[in-house]
Design a protein that fits this description.
The complex is a heterodimer. Chain A is built from eight helices and ten strands. Chain A is α/β, with parallel strands linked by helices. Chain A has one domain: Rossmann fold (3-Layer(aba) Sandwich), CATH 3.40.50.300. The two termini of chain A are 16 Å apart. By secondary structure, chain B is α+β, with helices and mostly antiparallel strands. Chain B has a six-stranded mixed barrel, surrounded by four helices. Chain B has a two-stranded antiparallel ribbon with strand order 2-3. In chain B, a hairpin with a 2-residue loop joins strand 2 and strand 3. In chain B, helix 1 packs across helix 11, helix 2 runs antiparallel to helix 12 and helix 9 packs parallel to helix 12. Chain B is elongated, with a radius of gyration of 33 Å. The mean pLDDT of chain B is 86. The chains are: A alpha/beta, B alpha+beta. The interface between A and B is medium-sized, with 26 and 21 residues.
Chain lengths: 268, 405
């Protein structure tokens, strides 16, 4: 499987970096609060979260539903803004950016992988992967080359012209990963990427993540499965809108090794 | 995103729901088709009117004998006997803005040739009549001033009369009977078709005025005088001069009504032109209403489409589509929809115009301007009615949109 990733850390940052890239954390979250105003009542989703993620980290965020982890993830993904506090992404305070600038950040600095894959149906794998490059105003030749490259990277070089409905869950998720990588983001955000997959396919996906992380990509993964979280380098547990635990993973298993111990399942 | 990519995505999204797209387009197709056909009809009618004006000449004045009031009983137009040949001579001699004039008097008569006969209008006039009216001969020629002087039994046939009596064969030089008198056919006029009010201009025969007055009607007064002015501008001056001259000659005192009327055909032409323009505008605006209804159909479907594709919009926003990207995507869909409808509508309009021309015989003129306007207008409909749904899509909250099932 061609997952030996060679991912460059974003070569064309949208906003100028402050200081030297190596010294800047990819993500710096300072005392972030998030309230939702529901008329009379105020829902407090995040109650003062502080977190720093350095380049090359692989963080698993855990927590039960209602713990605030989804809200935190949406905020990291620039889909939502904190009510108070600062969120600095690669030296840029994104909490002060306007919608258009946020769209550019999502497009070029962030790669999203969702639980439900979220591919466009009736659109081929290649076209799905090409989509972010369209919004990045890339030239056509470059777009196709990039899309083919990343599809090869996730082991789908042979199925570029397939439609999502013709692909298995694991393959669809790989298309989604390829789509997340196509604009060479600084960080990959995965929201329960194995939630809809069987255990073997889940480990396969984690293998891709580990390989990508080995080549320098920073990954933040939300999961509620402890086995999956073990593949990351660091686990952060949320509860009631606050970080409860933040620990490095000891005895981190290699997904490639785990796969060897698992029974093979026929995948079409 | 570049325009081509946007259009590709739009076309693909629309072909996904072919039936729905077609039905949505139908409103625009009918709207544009109706506009094209009605404007074509209106312009066809207008052109016909303009051609007629050109053929009858805009420098023409038509003097007709007026009504007369006999002890409170008013008789219809042409009832007076006061318009006479000398009036005509005076007009030509005394009014410098008048170029030519020809007398006119008429009666109905049965024209008989061999075993065929035809009831038609017989007009007595002088040779310059045809010149004034700009009428050409298809066969033979005019009668002469000498024929007028001698009150000769010569006749010029209208095309309809020729057709009904002789078919297509040439009968100039032969004799027809009008009443009990034999007349020699000297010429046949070129067919001119219907007049603006649907009258057959070719159904009539022409004889010297003297022949008509002396041998057929026995009346020595005129029913009308056809006058041509030296130019169209001069015709307005001539109208006033003729009026005062005739009032003078007929000894009409100030305050009394004219016993004749002078109509300027330029006015009549303008009026006809004006009314056909108004008609065109009216028809086109009725058709335009259906375009608006079509636009509302597009808006409706786009709203449905935005709701259906909420999740897709969420994905697009999450991977970096800006508000304007989403806006343009949906706007381009509605524009493609309406523009395609517009183009099909143009075809539909042209085809139905041709059908109308063939079946009903109305003349239709499809102008490139109307076609261009239809294209622009259907595009504008797409933008106008597509904007609200597209904006709704662009303003979606990505988190909610991604959660949408």
């Amino acid at each position: 499987m061609a997952t030996q990733a060679q991912i460059e850390v974003n070569a064309n940052p949208v906003v100028e970096l402050e200081g030297v890239a190596g010294a800047t954390p990819v993500i710096a979250v300072e005392d972030v609060h998030k309230y939702y105003d529901l008329g009379e009542t105020k829902v407090h989703a995040l109650r003062g979260v502080n977190m720093t993620i350095e380049p090359g980290e692989f963080v698993a965020i855990m927590g039960s539903s209602g713990s605030g982890k989804s809200t935190f993830m949406n905020m990291l993904g620039c889909l939502d803004k904190p009510s108070s506090g600062r969120y600095v992404l690669e030296g840029t305070d994104v909490s002060i950016l306007d919608k258009k600038e946020l769209a550019a950040i999502r497009n070029r600095k962030l790669g999203f992988v969702f639980q439900g894959f979220n591919l466009l149906s009736r659109t081929t794998a290649l076209e799905n992967v090409e989509l972010p490059t369209l919004y990045a105003q890339m030239e056509k030749d470059k777009r196709l080359a990039r899309a083919r490259e990343v599809l090869g990277l996730v082991g789908l070089g042979e199925r570029m012209e397939h439609f999502p409905s013709q692909l298995s869950g694991g393959q669809q998720q790989r298309v989604a990963i390829a789509r997340a990588l196509v604009n060479r983001p600084a960080i990959l955000l995965a929201d329960e990427p194995t939630g809809n997959l069987d255990s073997r396919t889940s480990v396969e996906i984690m293998q891709i993540f580990q390989d990508l992380n080995d080549s320098g990509l920073t990954i933040v993964l939300v999961t509620h499965e402890p086995d999956i979280a073990q593949f990351a380098k660091r686990t952060v547990v949320f509860r009631d809108g606050r970080i409860r635990h933040d620990n490095p993973v000891k005895n981190r298993p290699r997904a490639a090794e785990v796969l060897k111990t698992m029974p093979t399942v026929d995948e079409d | 995103m570049d325009l081509l990519a946007i259009l590709k995505i739009a076309v693909r999204a629309l072909t996904r729901n072919k039936m729905r797209s077609l039905l949505t387009m139908l409103g625009i197709v009918i709207g544009v088709g109706a506009v094209i056909a009605t404007v074509g009809l209106g312009q066809g009618a207008q052109e016909q009117v303009q051609n007629q004006i050109a053929s009858m000449g805009t420098d023409l004045l038509f003097i007709s004998a007026g009504s007369v009031n006999k002890g409170g009983i008013r008789l219809g137009g042409g009832a007076t006997k006061t318009l006479v040949y000398d009036d005509m001579k005076a007009i030509v001699q005394q009014i410098p803005t008048v170029a030519q004039a020809a007398p006119g008097a008429g009666a109905s008569a049965q024209v008989v040739a061999d075993n065929q006969n035809w009831s038609t209008r017989i007009t007595g006039t002088e040779p310059q009549y045809f010149d004034i009216r700009n009428w050409d001969f298809a066969r033979g020629g005019n009668f002469t001033q000498d024929d007028v002087t001698r009150a000769a039994n010569v006749v010029v046939l209208g095309a309809t009369v020729q057709q009904n009596l002789f078919g297509n064969s040439d009968f100039t030089g032969k004799t027809v009977r009008i009443g009990n008198l034999p007349f020699q056919v000297v010429g046949v006029l070129q067919a001119k078709g219907q007049s603006g009010i649907g009258q057959d201009q070719d159904d009539g025969v022409f004889v010297p005025i003297t022949t008509l007055q002396k041998k057929i009607t026995g009346q020595d007064w005129l029913q009308n005088i056809m006058v041509s002015a030296t130019s169209q501008d001069a015709s307005y001056a001539a109208q006033g001069q003729i009026t005062s001259l005739l009032r003078d000659r007929h000894r009409i005192r100030t305050g009394q009504d004219d016993d004749f009327s002078v109509r300027n055909l330029a006015d009549v032409a303008q009026l006809a032109d004006e009314s056909s323009k108004v008609m065109t505008l009216l028809l086109a605006s009725i058709a335009g209403v259906s375009l608006i209804v079509g636009g509302i159909g597009i808006m409706n479907i786009m709203m449905v489409s935005v709701t259906e594709r909420t999740r897709e919009i969420g994905i697009r926003i999450a991977i970096g589509a800006t508000e304007s990207d989403v806006l343009r995507q949906f706007l381009s869909e509605s524009v493609v929809l309406s523009l395609a409808g517009g183009l099909i509508g143009i075809l539909f309009g042209i085809v139905s115009s041709i059908t109308i021309t063939k079946v009903l015989g109305w003349s239709i003129l499809i102008s490139p301007a109307a076609v261009a306007a239809a294209v622009v207008f259907s595009m504008a409909v797409g933008i106008f009615f597509g904007f609200y749904p597209a904006r709704k899509a662009a303003m979606l909250d990505p988190i909610d949109a991604l959660r949408f099932e």
